[in-house]
Amino acid sequence: MRTVAALVAALSASVASAKNIIVTVGGNTTDNATTVFDPAQVFAQPNDIVIFNFTQGNHTATQSSFANPCIFLDFTTTQHGFDSGFRNAGNGSNVTIQSVPITPDLVNKTLWFFDYNTCAQGGVGGININDSSTETLEGFVRNAVRLNGTDADDNNSSTNSNTSTTGAPRPSGTNTGNTDTGDASRQHVTWGFAAVVPLVIAAFAL
Ligand SMILES: *[C@@H]1O[C@H](CO)[C@@H](O)[C@H](O)[C@H]1NC(C)=O
Ligand SMILES: *[C@@H]1O[C@H](CO)[C@@H](O)[C@H](O)[C@H]1NC(C)=O
Ligand SMILES: *[C@@H]1O[C@H](CO)[C@@H](O)[C@H](O)[C@H]1NC(C)=O
Ligand SMILES: *[C@@H]1O[C@H](CO)[C@@H](O)[C@H](O)[C@H]1NC(C)=O
Ligand SMILES: *[C@@H]1O[C@H](CO)[C@@H](O)[C@H](O)[C@H]1NC(C)=O
Ligand SMILES: *[C@@H]1O[C@H](CO)[C@@H](O)[C@H](O)[C@H]1NC(C)=O
Ligand SMILES: *[C@@H]1O[C@H](CO)[C@@H](O)[C@H](O)[C@H]1NC(C)=O
Ligand SMILES: *[C@@H]1O[C@H](CO)[C@@H](O)[C@H](O)[C@H]1NC(C)=O
Ligand SMILES: *[C@@H]1O[C@H](CO)[C@@H](O)[C@H](O)[C@H]1NC(C)=O
Ligand SMILES: *[C@@H]1O[C@H](CO)[C@@H](O)[C@H](O)[C@H]1NC(C)=O
Ligand SMILES: *[C@@H]1O[C@H](CO)[C@@H](O)[C@H](O)[C@H]1NC(C)=O
Ligand SMILES: *[C@@H]1O[C@H](CO)[C@@H](O)[C@H](O)[C@H]1NC(C)=O
Questions:
Q1: Parallel, antiparallel, or unpaired: how do β-strands 20-25 and 49-54 relate?
Q2: Which of 162, 164, 167 minimizes the C-alpha distance to 179?
Q3: Going along 27-107, which residue ranges are E strands?
Q4: Which tens digit of pLDDT belongs to each residue from 3-29?
Q5: Pairing mode, if any, of strands 87-88 and 58-59?
Q6: Strand 41-42 relative to strand 124-127: parallel, antiparallel, unpaired?
Q7: Which residues form the signal peptide (predicted)?
Q8: What is the pTM (predicted TM-score) of this model?
């Protein structure tokens, strides 16, 4: 019971301080795709909302795993990730947002994400990255560039044409164009739980 009370208190505290955290998607990607998400790293507490604000160009905000930076999470794990689909903002003429609520079950989890169009050049980011863990943003960027948009575990996509139909439905699915991502149905379930962030502690600190 004490645990429940503490949880309720934690929830109340975080509700009281719930905030919107803006990640601008677009920027000037002409010279460096690592600026597509600005900032590329944000920290959010339970009940905060991370808002991707698509302001320029044609990008996605799609959740992935650390091991497979450029592949939709649903294709590489049994988890269900967020995916904005392509958002064509033009030159600021068609600004749209994608909201990602940080639900209490996401406490102590890192949410990695990428832009389908610039992932291979480092167009990636993360929510609640544990800076002390080995899974850093810099490592994630390196992974994305090294794998060049491919699956870490399978560089032969011709072996599977069944992936996209076995994944969970997408949350807001316009076409993300990644139906050709190959054999991503292999399980990497543990990745999503690997990193730990002190969200509850942070909530009490406010
Ligand atoms: C984007 O950056 C490039 C290189 O720094 C620069 O030449 C270009 O003018 C910039 N574009 C905009 C819209 O700021
Ligand atoms: C892109 O920008 C990031 C952050 O400013 C920097 O660390 C990186 O070296 C840049 N890459 C290139 C190719 O300019
Ligand atoms: C998104 O960016 C546009 C253009 O900079 C700005 O007008 C708008 O207020 C932003 N939306 C949010 C939710 O921050
Ligand atoms: C956005 O990018 C995707 C993939 O590169 C492409 O298929 C789609 O046509 C683009 N959308 C627009 C409006 O340019
Ligand atoms: C504006 O963005 C929405 C959502 O991404 C897209 O469906 C629509 O086609 C875009 N409109 C234009 C004119 O690009
Ligand atoms: C953005 O502006 C540039 C320069 O004016 C233009 O060449 C380009 O076609 C525009 N892109 C869109 C999607 O409107
Ligand atoms: C971050 O990761 C390190 C190394 O895996 C771990 O020891 C630490 O407990 C994590 N941080 C938090 C706040 O849990
Ligand atoms: C990365 O992938 C793109 C698109 O498939 C390809 O054109 C490019 O040659 C690849 N680069 C490397 C270094 O493999
Ligand atoms: C990619 O394919 C080559 C040739 O089949 C293989 O030697 C290599 O281990 C594969 N790489 C990965 C990451 O699976
Ligand atoms: C990829 O898979 C196909 C079908 O199984 C096979 O014929 C081909 O040799 C494989 N290519 C590589 C590089 O492993
Ligand atoms: C697709 O995947 C399902 C479930 O793993 C399997 O039962 C089915 O045989 C697969 N179909 C094809 C064409 O590979
Ligand atoms: C989250 O991490 C903090 C700090 O390591 C820990 O005290 C707390 O029990 C964790 N919460 C959950 C739900 O795992």
A1: parallel
A2: 164
A3: 37-38, 41-42, 49-54, 58-59, 62-64, 87-88, 96-101
A4: 666 666 555 555 557 899 999 999 766
A5: antiparallel
A6: parallel
A7: 1-18
A8: 0.67
Q: Domain map of the chain by residue range?
A: 19-192
Query: Does 90 sit in the ligand 6 pocket, CB within 6 Å?
Result: yes
* Ligand lying closest to the C-alpha of residue 182: 10
pLDDT tens readout for residues 68-86? 999 999 999 999 999 999 9
Continuous H helices in 88-162 = 137-147
Architecture of the 19-192 domain = Sandwich (2.60)
Question: DSSP letter at 48?
Answer: -
Question: In this predicted structure, which of 68-82, 99-113, 172-186 has the lowest mean pLDDT?
Answer: 172-186
**Residue indicated by tokens 């600005």:** 38
Inter-CA distances, 92 with 40, 125, 173, Å: 20, 21, 22
pLDDT higher than threshold 50 for residue 107: yes
**Ligand 12 centre and the CA of 200: distance in Å?**
7
By C-alpha distance, which of 137, 156, 105, 155 is closest to 39? Answer: 137
Neighbours of 91 (CB within 10 A): 9
CA–CA gap between residue 198 and residue 73 (Å, rounded): 23
Beta bridge partners of residue 24, listed in sequence order: 38, 53
Residue 95, ligand 3, Cβ within 6 A = yes
